[in-house]
Every structure is written in structure tokens, then in C-alpha cells.
Amino acid sequence: EKFRPLSGRTNVVLTKAASEPGFASPYPEGVLVASSVKAAVEALSAREDVGEIFVIGGQAAYEEAIGIPSCDRIFITRVGKDIDCDAFFPAFDASAYEVVHVSATRSHEGLPYDFIV
Fold first, then answer.
1. Where are the transmembrane segments (predicted)?
2. Integer distance in angstroms from the first to the last C-alpha of the chain?
3. Can you tell me the distance from the alpha carbon of 23 to that of 10, in angstroms, rounded to the nearest whole number?
4. Omega into 80 within 30° of 0, i.e. cis?
5. Fewer CB atoms < 10 Å away: N or C end of the chain?
């Protein structure tokens, strides 16, 4: 199956098509569709069954999310090695956030990483 919702949570798919007239969601019942992170946050904030909202990618969604005033935490996986890639977490004003946790450095197949909140 191409798309499987993550269990135990409300799932939102971002697609620009959601803002087009006559858009019909191709996703399973219960999966919300929004045209932007802002639209998703607005819809989710109106629901009583949603306590926290997590944006899980990609780069454009992260860029939009960190510009939303209610974004008060960033969970980062910091990789301790330069890797040739073409997508990155966007630059942000680190002084707007307080580091509250840094995990012990771990390694997976020789790649060191840690988690920062």
C-alpha cells in the first residue's frame, strides 16, 4: 500500500491540490488534507482531541513550520559527519529557542548522531 497512516495519531497530508476547487481526498477516512502547514495547524488547533502538533518533513514544511509563532520546540537529530546530500533542515534563529536536552551521542553503522530538543 502506497500510503499508510501512522497509527495512534491524527495524520495530515500536505498538498497544494487541497486548495483547488472540487478537490477530493484520495486518502483513507480520518486522514486530514491541508494545502499548507499553516492551514494544518489552524485545523488541528480547533480540535479538542489534538494536544501537540509535530511536523515530520520535508524541508519546505519545516521552513514554513518554524515561521509559525506557535512553533515552540524543535526536535533535531544532529549527525556528526559531513554527508553529501541535497536537502537540509532550514536555517533558523537558534536564539529564539532554549536547548533543554541533548542526548548521549550514539552511532549507527559508524555514523555518530545525537538528539537535541
1. none
2. 33
3. 20
4. no
5. N
Residue 12, number of CB atoms within 10 A of its CB: 20
- pTM for the complete prediction? 0.85
Residues in the chain: 117
> How many Å apart are CA 74 and CA 62, to the nearest integer?
10
Residue type, 37: V
For 54-87, write each residue's pLDDT tens digit.
999 899 999 999 999 999 999 999 999 999 988 8
Burial group, residue 74, by CB count within 10 angstroms (0-12, 13-18, 19+) = middle
76-79 and 106-108 beta bridge pairing: unpaired
User: Is the confidence at residue 1, as pLDDT, over 70?
Assistant: no
CA–centroid distance for 58 within its chain: 7
